[in-house]
From TrEMBL:
The chain crosses the membrane at residues 6-35, 55-76, 147-172, 193-214, 292-316. GO terms for cellular component: membrane. Keywords: Membrane, Transmembrane, Transmembrane helix. It is found in: Membrane. It comes from the Bacteria. This is AI-2E family transporter. Belongs to the autoinducer-2 exporter (AI-2E) (TC 2.A.86) family. InterPro entries: AI-2E-like (IPR002549). GO terms for biological process: transmembrane transport. Residues 367-377 have a biased composition (Basic and acidic residues). Coiled coil: none annotated. Residues 351-377 are annotated as: Disordered.
Amino acid sequence: MNLGQWIGLIAIVLSLYILWQIREVLLLMFAAVVLATTLNRLAKRLQRLGMTRGLAVVLSVALFFAGVIGFFWLIMPPFIQQFNELTDRVPQGFERFNSWLDELRTRIPSQLVPYIPDINSLIQQAQPFVNRVLGSSFALVSGSLEVVLKVLLVLVLTGMLLADPMAYRKVFVRIFPSFYRRRVDGILDKCEVSLEGWVTGAVIAMGVVGLMSVVGLSILGVKAALALGVLAGFLNLIPNLGPTMSVVPAMAIALLDAPWKVVAVLILYFIIQQVESNFITPIVMAHQVSLLPAVTLIAQLFFVTFFGFLGLFLALPLTVVAKIWLQEVLIKDVLDEWGHNHAKETELVIVSDPPGSGDNYTTETPTSDKERSNDDV
């Protein structure tokens, strides 16, 4: 390679290294873009009703904050109350289990007594694990300030993007060559429509799952059914893993009432998940975003491996945007045009053999040569 190629290679490697180092910042910026795009589309719909741009933006932001505040207002108080009750009942459950084991030892043959576990020894063996959990909890609390700062950063960026979205869009388009800027602008339109479709489908699926969870938990008589249903709907934004995460607090609270309710809650959430994955998501998302289930799972594994929990939460919108760019740029503009460009450079010309040979053959003559021969004539 010559000097220019080496410089280009070094520049690409350094760019990839810098992008990798600031990957978390880029994810936060992408989260702000997704949120700003969603609120901007809502503001545009309100503008069609006759509102001014400023009033539509303010109303969209107000609806967003009302939803966030309502979510935490429904979730936090019941969970704090149930958690306190759970911490009080767990020692009682240990004592009851220990007395049951003591009674069991008196009724079984003496040869089997050594194989009966001792609750005190189990607690001692679990002590290191408890210490690690508490340590990670303290680390989570100590890192809560960092989480708050990241959330504030996303909200500030969202407000800036929402104030004048076209200005930032023009800046992004101008980093491309002049002949490709109109094409990039069209791709951004498709990304915006797809993100709106994903948000719409996700909100519909979230509402249906939350409603079914509230109704099912209320029928079973589980406490804090409304909070658990709202949490189940919110975690449904994370496909595959979200429903598994939502069943844990529901089973823990059901354990406070009766052991059979734990099994009933597990069966209920399994039925809801089957209904959501086989009926709700195919019907809703088929009209919004077309993503294969295997692609969704692979994208989740990829983003959670390289970007952590934030990557898991943003896996679907990232996949939606990446799919559009790959389909429009790589497939349509590069791969699909590859053969056409070659065909434009050459032209098939039929040349006849001398009379009597009876055979014809074809040859490829460059278009420029043909034009040159015509000019000579």
